[in-house]
Amino acid sequence: MKKQIGVIFGSRSCEREVAIISAVQLMRHADSDKYDVIPVYIDENGSWYTGEKLKDINAYRPFRAEQGGITKVFPDLTAGSGALLKVSKGTGLFSREKVEIVARIDAYIIVMHGLNGEDGTLQGLMELAKVPYTSTGVAGSAIGMDKIMMKQFFRGAGLPVLPGLWFSRSAFERDRDAVLKQVEKELGFPVFVKPANLGSSIGVSRADDSASLADSLELAFEYDRRVLVEQGLDKPIELNCSVLGYDDETEASPIEMPLGNGELLDFSDKYLASGGSKGMASLHRVLPAPIEDSLRDEIQKMSCEIFRMLDCKGVVRIDYMFDRKTEKIYITEINTIPGSLAFYLWENAGLSYSRLIDRMVGYAEKAFEDKNSANFAYTSDILKGVSFGTKGTKGAKGSKGAKY
Question: What distance in Å separates the CA atoms of residue 218 and residue 210, rounded to the nearest whole number?
Fold first, then answer.
């Protein structure tokens, strides 16, 4: 019997279009002999839709909910249900609306990039609904999305990161000169300015002096109320490595060296290099990267360590900067749901995209089994001694009748 696999993508994110490309790619490569693939698209307003039409990239040029082959749905959050529901209008004069089941999902492949999907919010929903899902869990996803928290986490773990500062929009608006002076004093120039919770290089820019720093901060604060300012390197080499696995089973991919038009790989470099139809797979790159074996081994080992530290699941991509002058490697960020699911890195290792999907689904199911094997049935006598019968009684902790 085929598994009912929901591919969930889109959402209220600046990276929604990138997620659409990644999801359509994935749906085209999923093994139809093993899975009934059910697309679940969340639009920019947060409405959920399903239907075969959503497997066609043309359905999003632009997206119109009223086009044929698309049904508006909502998830049943009853634990273990996995149902997608729709509301149907009655036909009689006094008939009422009724709720119908459109599909039941056995497991979700999450193909979200950015906020409201990659950041732990959707993962939390999956946990409440008690449905297997492919991505990193709630905590790891949240840390991996927020560049400020991520850098603090890596620094606390003793991992190599570039010096950086972070600022809130309110602090910048209150005293912009103080912010500019602090960056110049503690980091110098050049620096890279990044919105804390965005990917795909949206809102990221380089600043070489105070004037351009002010412009860069204003740009970044348009996208987020918190911004990271990171010390720049002189013509670094960017190196990316994917990790696949769950728990202690981790495997690092070959390492790629992306090639852009300048020092910063912007949105156009990443997604429009070949017309945008292939997402991150369209990026110009050298694969495998022409680096020393010792550096390759160091990056692959560190990538697997990071994967385990954040309790990741499925496939992730970790990005690095290599300083040619000092020959030091620095972690840039982790992408817990990388563009195009990093399938091109695994194809280079001899793992087809369809097989990669199999592995992701398998890890989702294994994590789900592990979660359910935990004991949630602990009970105590705490409620027996609690009484709220008298006005003015203290809460449970202060109740004289409660014994612990």
Answer: 12
According to CATH, the superfamily of the domain at 164-231 is ATP-grasp fold, A domain (3.30.1490.20)
User: Taking a C-beta distance cutoff of 8 angstroms, is the pair 24, 282 a contact?
Assistant: no
Instruction: Write down the domain spans for the chain.
Output: 3-133, 144-158+236-371, 164-231
Which DSSP symbol is given to 236? P
Fold exhibited by the domain 3-133: Rossmann fold (3.40.50)
Q: Is residue 334 a contact partner of residue 144, using CB atoms and an 8 Å limit?
A: yes
Find, among 339, 316, 294, the residue nearest to 241 by Cα.
316
If DSSP codes are grouped into helix, strand and coil, which group holds residue 124? helix
How many other CB atoms are found less than 10 A from the CB of residue 305?
A: 15
Q: How far apart are CA 127 and CA 125, in angstroms?
A: 5
Number of H helices and E strands in the chain, helices first, is 11, 16
- Fold of the CATH domain 144-158+236-371: D-amino Acid Aminotransferase; Chain A, domain 1 (3.30.470)
Cis bond before residue 195 (omega within 30° of 0): no
**Is residue 263 predicted with pLDDT exceeding 80?**
no
* CA-based nearest residue to 58, from 18, 11, 21: 21
Q: How many Å apart are CA 253 and CA 243, to the nearest integer?
A: 6
Question: Which one, of 82, 108, 85, 113, lies nearest residue 11 by Cα?
Answer: 113
Closest CA to 236 of 215, 276, 206, 267: 206
Summarised one tens digit per residue, pLDDT across range 5-47 is 999 999 888 889 999 999 999 999 999 999 999 999 999 999 9
Rounded CA separation 22/42 (Å):
14
Answer whether the bond into residue 190 is a cis peptide, omega within 30°. Answer: yes
DSSP assigned state of 390: S
- Residue-wise pLDDT for 351-389, tens only, equals 999 999 999 999 999 999 999 998 777 777 888 888 887
* pLDDT category of residue 120 using cuts at 50, 70 and 90: very high
167-208: pLDDT as tens digits: 999 999 999 999 999 999 999 999 999 999 876 678 899 999
The amino acid at 31: D
Is 335:144 a contact under the CB 8 Å cutoff?
yes
